[in-house]
Design a protein that fits this description.
heterotrimer; A alpha/beta (328); B mainly alpha (314); C mainly alpha (302); A: alpha/beta; 13 helices; 12 strands; 38% helix; globular; C: mainly alpha; MetI-like fold; 70% helix
């Protein structure tokens, strides 16, 4: 069966000053129908840019190479009405609901807008469906919410509204761009549970973007790790989490404080994350990698198939045992 | 919203009270006998003097006089014109229509052309945008009486498309006669509104909520209309209200240049001939209109932005 | 004004400092303003002919040798009248700005320093007086006190006072809360000393921007009042008076007098506004009393 979303060789350059600089290089990933893929990385690693490329929301002036296919159709060739139709099938949940919901329009208008303007649904039916959708994201008494304005709602409530709005056009693929980062900790768990539940219940495909490796592992079937605009490792979540094959994945895992083991000092990754356009000839992570050897600094590793997944590290086989141990 | 409206209404009343006090006190502050001021230093027969003394309660203390005058004014009695020997209210009523039509016409131009050009510039970067920006930068600096002279020189004298003088007869004739005055009055404000529209629409188009709308498959015209322009309407309404209010005061200039028989032109004549009751009456009417329009602009802006009524941006 | 110059990047030479801040357009604007000031001082002595000498046979005559701009409707030399008019046209707005900004600063600083109910009362009064349009007040005053430049200047100063005072009050309020003011208070400096030697100097950049802005408004409003015949009285040469005087010429197809005088006003107002905008480092001039962003603070205390 062909995957629902298939991205191959995606390279994106953005104009910085006069020179277009790459922010994504050769990104490839697939999501099958009903599958959840986590996309993990530090700020600036290109994970949000990947989602934007898929949703066709790149800033003006962006140069795109490579192939993005949704259910077999070439996304990059879509124009006008076809593109708008696609957008009702691929829904996006953004990071900051406060900024991403129009502050001067009512919640009801926000929820029903897409249905009424694209689906030729009557106001009454759109409203009924909006109330049902609110019910699905665990908002009781949704009808009362419809007349409210965004500033009258809490961040968590607003994010549920955003999720409900995304579901209203009955999409098959959900792009969730750090949907819980802007929320406080207790709300994060609730919102995450709602997304996870709805996905399973509706058989949605999910591209889940986060900087939290544990969260991705908990929610997603497979997880891809990005560094400096490239994917460095993609494997089933459980394997990737328990037995990372890329030193960066391992470092990400170790950088998160564990509740079960006490450590004297929290682990950090030395150095700072690179942007795609700063990357030297060799492996992008070499400068910060404790296992880097001379070839790492001159040869760029390609993604190679291993253990039900792919990893881009010259020393992946050598380090298999080492990483498993240090990470444990 | 109700609380906000009540607060605005109270402010409006106080403002009007203070303005009327200012208008009234002037007569007392003026050097010399109030009677002399009111009569514009004309020599009057004794019976007229007696009528004036009675009418303006000149034998009563200051505050009593003010209250009596204000009471009369509220009931529509603004005194008698010394020069014309007629009730000021009647004189004002016969001229108010011209001024109102002029200001309405001009504010229609301000909103339609201002928003139109601003939107055009915001949505068409490049040559169109640059032309609008340059044109409005020039126009915004041209005060109405200079705009009036330029319009007359070009459209009335050189091209002879529109009349340069008078009020005209019939609806079409009146509109034709009001066209150049209205454009002269509107020019600078139109440019200001166009600039604000351009900036505000650009700013809104760059916001995240617009991205959300695009990502949901809403068509571009609908995104512009329902999100960018809708949100930009808040600053546009504020500025349009302020512009219309200021045009009420500036209408005098245009009326005088174009020989229109409006309140402003009458006010200038009355000021020149020291017909104090008329000056007071027209000032009171114009200030009231000015304050009302300003308040209306604020209320419209508040109605457009739900956050204002909660005091977040008030 | 030179004090503002010191606010810019230290290290750059004085010349580049100014040009860097003003930009090419700002330099042109500054040149125009300086030229206008020179004209206002020297104008009446520079006139090639007597600005009031009338030769009716030359009414509306086109430019000729010795009369580069031609004649007005009463056969007076246009260039001479424009030059002579510069003085009255500039003195009026300068006086308005000086009065309105000085009084506005005094009211604002006094209100903020006194605080409490005094401040609330002043704010409330300003809010209300805010409503009286300057031109209207000037007409009222002219009717009551007699027409003339002085009455018009006084009326406009009163009308502008709330605008300047309101803006400066909010700026003074921010400044008053700053630690250095508190520190001076603790050291026992008197309120007067702190206000005059510290608070007002730190407000100076804002005051300068305000002054340039209101100069533009005052110039236009005074021209309007003179245009009505309620300000400068003809035959004194003044740009506003010239616009009014040239009106009959416009209808007869000789718009030179009105248009030249109008152009002088517009060019000078635009130049002053650009200068104010550049000095303040902001383009925010959204109408009268529009918001002005707080310009960079200068002086030793930042």
């Amino acid at each position: 069966m062909s995957p629902l979303l298939e991205v191959s060789g995606l390279t994106v350059r953005l104009p910085v000053g006069h020179q277009p600089k790459p922010v994504l290089s050769d990104v490839s990933l697939t999501i099958a129908a009903g599958e959840a893929l986590g996309l993990v990385g530090e700020s600036g690693s290109g994970k949000s840019m990947t989602a934007r490329a898929v949703a066709r929301l790149l800033p003006p002036g962006a140069q795109v190479e490579g192939d993005i296919r949704y259910a077999g159709t070439d996304l990059r060739a879509l124009r006008g009405q076809q593109l708008r139709e696609l957008r009702t099938r691929v829904a996006v949940v953004f990071q900051d609901p406060r900024a991403h919901v129009n502050p001067v329009r009512r919640i009801g208008d926000f929820l029903t807008e897409a249905l009424r303007l694209t689906g030729r649904v009557s106001r009454r039916e759109a409203t009924d469906r909006a109330v049902r959708a609110l019910d699905e994201v665990a908002v009781a008494d949704g009808r009362r919410l419809l007349d409210r304005y965004p500033h009258q709602l809490s961040g968590g409530m607003l994010q549920r509204v955003m999720i409900a709005a995304a579901l209203l056009t009955e999409p098959r693929l959900l792009l969730a761009d750090e949907p819980t980062t802007a929320l406080d900790v207790t709300t994060q768990a609730e919102v995450m549970a709602i997304i996870d539940g709805l996905r399973r219940q509706r058989g949605l495909s999910l591209l889940f973007i986060t900087h939290d490796l544990d969260l991705a592992a908990a929610v997603c079937d497979r997880t891809a790790v990005m560094y400096a605009g490239r994917i460095v490792e993609t494997r089933p979540s459980a394997l990737l989490h328990g037995h990372p094959l890329h030193p960066y994945t391992a470092a990400l895992g170790a950088a998160r404080p564990s509740v079960t083991t006490r450590v004297d000092r929290l682990a950090t990754i030395p150095g700072r994350p690179l942007s795609a356009f700063e990357v030297p000839d060799g492996c992008a992570f070499a400068a910060r990698c404790v296992y880097a050897q001379d070839p790492c600094r001159t040869h760029r590793p390609e993604l190679a198939s291993v253990d039900e997944g792919e990893v881009a590290c010259l020393r992946a086989e050598d380090l298999r045992e080492t990483l498993a141990v240090t990470h444990g | 919203m109700a609380g906000y409206l009540a607060r605005r209404a109270a402010m409006l009343l106080v403002t009007l009270l203070v303005s009327s006090f200012l208008v009234f006190t002037g007569v007392t502050l003026a050097p010399g006998d109030p009677l002399a001021t009111l009569s514009g230093n004309r020599s009057l027969p004794p019976e007229t003097v007696a009528v004036l003394r009675e009418r303006y309660h000149l034998d009563d203390p200051f505050l009593v006089r003010y209250v009596a005058w204000l009471g009369d004014a509220v009931r529509g009695d603004l005194g008698v014109s010394i020069a014309q020997r007629q009730d000021v209210s009647d004189l004002i009523a016969s001229r108010a229509g011209t001024t109102a039509a002029l200001v309405l016409y001009a504010s229609a131009i301000v909103v339609a052309a201002g928003v139109g050009f601003g939107l055009l510039a915001a949505l068409r970067p490049g040559i169109v945008d640059s032309m609008v920006v340059a044109g409005t930068a020039a126009a915004v600096a041209v005060p109405p009486f200079i705009a009036a002279i330029v319009l007359i020189a070009v459209f009335a004298v050189a091209l002879d498309w529109f009349p340069a003088f008078g009020t005209g007869s019939g609806l079409l004739g009146q509109i034709r006669h009001l066209t150049l005055p209205a454009f002269a009055l509107a020019a600078a404000s139109t440019a200001a509104v166009a600039r604000v529209t351009r900036t505000a629409v650009r700013e809104e188009l760059g916001r995240e909520h617009v991205q959300t709308a695009v990502s949901r498959g809403i068509s571009y015209p609908a995104v512009v209309r329902r999100h960018a322009l809708r949100n930009a309407a808040v600053p546009i309404a504020t500025l349009a209200g302020m512009s219309t209010a200021s045009m009420i005061a500036l209408a005098a200039v245009v009326e005088r240049v174009f020989g229109l028989n409006g309140l402003g032109a009458y006010l200038v004549n009355a000021a020149l001939s020291k017909d104090i009751a008329v000056v007071q009456g027209i000032c009171l009417v114009l200030v009231t209109a000015f304050v009302l329009v300003n308040t209306l602009g604020d209320v419209v802006a508040a109605a457009l932005d739900p956050r204002i009524t909660l005091g977040r941006r008030a | 004004m030179s004090a503002i110059g010191t606010a810019v990047r230290p290290g750059a030479g004085p010349g580049t400092r100014w040009r860097g801040r003003l930009g090419p357009l700002g330099v042109v604007a500054a040149a125009i303003v300086v030229a206008a000031i020179v004209l206002a001082i020297l104008g009446p002595t520079l006139t090639p002919h007597d600005p009031n000498a009338s030769d009716l046979s030359r009414a509306f005559a086109p430019p000729e040798a010795g009369h580069p701009l031609g004649y007005d409707g009463q056969g007076r030399d246009l260039l001479s009248r424009l030059l002579a008019g510069a003085r009255t046209s500039l003195i009026g707005p300068l006086a308005v700005v000086a009065l309105a900004v000085t009084a506005g600063t005094a009211v604002a600083v006094a209100a903020v320093w006194a605080g409490g109910w005094v401040d609330s009362l002043v704010s409330a009064v300003l809010e209300v007086v805010f409503a009286f349009p300057g031109v209207l007040l000037a007409m009222l005053v002219a009717a009551l006190f007699g027409a003339g430049l002085q009455a018009a200047v006084l009326a406009l100063s009163v009308a502008y006072l709330p605008y300047t005072a309101r803006l400066l009050r909010s700026a003074a309020l921010t400044e008053r809360e700053k630690p250095y003011i508190r520190a001076l208070e603790v050291q026992g400096a008197s309120g007067m000393t702190i206000c005059l030697r510290h608070l007002v100097p730190n407000l100076a950049p804002l005051i300068a921007v305000q002054a340039t802005l209101f100069f533009g408004y005052a110039m236009v409003d005074l021209a309007i009042i003179s245009f009505f015949g309620l300000g400068v009285r003809p035959p004194s040469p003044d740009w506003g008076v010239m616009i009014a005087g040239g009106q009959s010429g416009v209808l007869q197809g000789y718009p030179a007098e009105s248009l030249l005088a109008g152009a002088c006003i517009v060019v000078l107002v635009v130049a002053v506004n650009i200068l104010g905008e550049r000095l303040g480092g902001t383009g925010a001039t959204g109408g009268r009393g529009g918001r002005l962003r707080w310009p960079r603070r200068w002086g030793a205390r930042s």
